[in-house]
Amino acid sequence: MSNAATSAPRRDAFFDNAKYLAIVLVGVGHAWGQILDGNRTVETLYRFVYTFHMPAFIIISGYFSRSFDLSPKRVKRLITGVVVPYVVFEFAYSMHWRLLGGDPGHDISLLDPTYLLWFLCALFVWRLTTPIWRTLRWPLPVALVIAALASMTPTIADDLNMQRVLQFLPCFVLGLCLRPEHFALVRRRAVRIASVPVAALAVAVAWWSVPRMTNDWFYRNVPAQSTGSPWWTGPVLTLALFGCSVVLSACFYAWVPGRRMWFTALGAGTIYGYLLHGFLVKEGIYSGFFDRPFLDTPLGEIGVALAGATAVTLLCTPPVRRALRFVVEPRMEWAFRQDAGEAARDRRPPSAALASDTPVPAQERVSA
Prior knowledge:
Number of helices: 18
Helix content: 55-70%
Strand content: under 5%
Order of helices and strands: HHHHHHHHHHHHHHHHHH
Number of strands: 0
Distance between the termini: 31 Å
Largest sheet: none
């Protein structure tokens, strides 16, 4: 076996599995979100999933952002893996809305992310501030204070969906603070067993909350005052939801397989499934598909969930990734200057470069 082969970084199957399963839950949640009216069972499951599916994904994103700094290599990856896809898909979603959504005058604005594109805005801000969080003595308490203050500040504008950026910030910072042994801890058999009653209790609480709380609390996209609640409920529910998100994320990680599965390879393409499945959901809305009475039946509700999971799975596959890599993960070498360090490495003999270069972990090269 060649030195190049032996030095290639191996992807951790656990994290790829977790990313894939979390994105599947995102797709299922978005599908269920279209048939909530008057359906308490679906809304209960919807709230249960929404409590942890994005936090679990964001925690992993933070975990693999620990090495981010403002070096040219990292900044280039941030631009090509986050900024460029955001610009391309913001334009694509806006045009989709104009042409098929019945709104020919819909604005195209890079400051007002469409639908699920808020995550790319958030990831951009979080990654840029990573050196700050890595420097602070108590980064998680500081992030929680910022999130709590945001939840009671109605003057925060909608630009870049900053409410979500700030209210989900503690999940990203928590990921920055975690180490491999923390994930090993939640994957023990005892935690896996304990997670079952915890999840059952969470479902019961979600059932109780349906007539008593608005879904906006789970989206983290508005301040407390916008829900008709007093200002002080913002910090209280922000901290409570963060605690619930962490606990349920731990339960989720406890059941994620650590070995290679048939879907493990799809974990490398979760950003494709995330960005693309929104077109299918929006098309279903525009075409009136989700208004069909059949979808209000138990069989229809199960069918919608399976359709969402299947669509996301197919969109994470290698053929889709190969076809759309030029817009989701473009190289864009023409747009960047080569820094002195890279130029020096290019001038060295291949054997010397191989011996001295430290490869970037594969999963750190993936944006989401």
